[in-house]
Amino acid sequence: MKRYGRWLIGLLTVALLAALGIRVAGNYQKKQRATTEATQSRELPIHVSGQEVIAAQPRAMALTVPASGVVQAVHSAVVKAYVAGELRGLTVREGDAVKKGQLLARIDATEVDARWRQAQQQADAARAQLAIAQRQHDNNQALVKKGFISDTALATSRANLDAAQANLAAAQAAADGARKSVRDTAITSPMNGQVAQRFVQTGERVGVEARIVEIVDPSQLEIVVQLAPADSVQVRVGQMAQLQVPGAAADLAPVQARVARINPSAQAGSRTVTAYLSMLPPTPAEGSKNSSSLLLADMRPGLFLQGFIVTGQAEQLALPLTAVRTDRPRPYVQVLQPDTAEGKPGNEPGSAAFQRVAHRFVQLGRQTSLDGTTWVQITSGLAAGSLVLGGSAGGLREGTAVIVDEAAAPAPSGSSPGGR
After folding, report:
1. How far apart are CA 304 and CA 222, in angstroms?
2. What is the extent of the structural domain holding 287?
């Protein structure tokens, strides 16, 4: 009996020690877990405004190609000197209006005047020689009939008469050319317009074909644009275009133009194709701050313009070009996806649910513009209705937690970009 009691006491002691050890181990594990949770860094989601989130939706887009070119006058002329000499009386300067036939300057006519008088005198001498040859021939004809001279002498006099007539014609032609040179000393305007450039000054000696002034007609202007090879195949005569002076005021409407002509051949070096755009009459919009009429009136030959040519319309999924990131080998967008997992920091009951950033590679199409923002077609890689972070949100690592502030909704997707 005593021995059985000792065994029972030993077993109870072991059981108590085991229970105490289990309890101590449990408390230690709880402390370790609490310490780990206390030291573990909590994930802090990034807050973004709803204006930085774009809902990808199909949009009716105006398909465009970029166009930049220079304004030039349809009618222009470079006035040159047709005779050499000292230039006198050139008073017109850049910007002065001139009329067709207006005298612009004169070239000293001393030399050409002397040559004209010389040619006239030579013509008079040839005319006198012709008169002598004519009388001699008439006399020989009478003598032949009477038998005093032979037919050979008559033929000789006839040849002398023909030679005298030829000499007179040559001398008269030389006199006419000299007279024209005298007229060419007066430099006149070949058209109505304005002086665009003045190349020489009064008192300078100019040679033949020397440029004097350039005259342009600012009432008829066109825009000469150079199209890239890939863009040129999409441009047709009659398509509309909008162009603006770089740096112009935002409230100044762009110039409306139409493709009038396309060069049938490409440039040998750059392979670009030249297109000619005719400016259209202004159509001021009622209630607008400004109209293209002001800009069209201020157009000058030589101005550089930038814009686009509208080549068609298409219904296509589109995003602002700034939302497409290119810091990886392929273009991609940052898509927001709901994170519904439980037990993660930020998803506890009563907290604002957040979303995760996912990167989606996309295939880009053609570009267009609306209100100064460039839009690009998304041909593949993105589903309609996806929420995409705009460019102002910056680059975020894939899987980053994001909370969209409810104070601002995602950017509207119903507006359709117009032609750029």
Report:
1. 12
2. 66-72+217-311
What is the rounded (10 degree) CA torsion for 321, 325, 328, 334? -130
Query: For position 374, which CATH number holds?
Result: 2.40.420.20
For 399-417, give the DSSP string: T-EEEE-TTSPPBP-----
374 and 320 Cβ atoms separated by less than 8 Å: yes
How many CB atoms are closer than 10 A to CB 151?
9
State the first-to-last Cα distance of the chain, in angstroms, to the nearest integer.
Answer: 107
CATH number of the CATH domain containing 254: 2.40.30.170
Looking at the domain assignment, is residue 419 inside a domain? no
Please give the full DSSP string across 344-404, using - where no structure is assigned.
STT-STTSPP-EEEEEEE-EEEEEEEETTEEEEEEEES--TT-EEE-GGG----TT-EEEE
Q: What is the pLDDT of residues 391-410, one digit of tens each?
A: 888 888 888 888 887 654 45
Report the pLDDT averaged over residues 68-81: 91
Contact in structure between 296 and 245 (CB atoms under 8 Å): no
**35 within some domain:** no
Q: Do 129 and 84 fall into the same domain?
A: no
In a domain, 8, yes or no: no
pLDDT digits (tens, 9 = 90+) for 296-308: 567 788 889 988 8
389 in the same domain as 347: yes
DSSP-derived letter for residue 325 is B
Q: Answer yes or no: is 161 within a domain.
A: yes
What's the number of domains the chain is made of? Answer: 4
| pLDDT of 330 above 70 | yes
Q: How far apart are CA 310 and CA 235, in angstroms?
A: 8
Does 222 lie in the same domain as 301? yes
Q: How confident is the model at residue 2 (pLDDT cuts 50, 70, 90)?
A: low
* Whether 52 contacts 407, CB under 8 Å: no
CB 220 within 8 A of CB 74: yes
Q: pLDDT of 193-218, one tens digit each?
A: 999 999 999 989 998 889 999 999 98
Measure the CA–CA gap between 312 and 62, rounded to whole angstroms: 6
Residue 140 belongs to domain with CATH number:
1.10.287
Contacting residues for 361 by C-beta, under 8 A, at least 6 apart: 330, 331, 332, 381
Tell me the pTM.
0.59
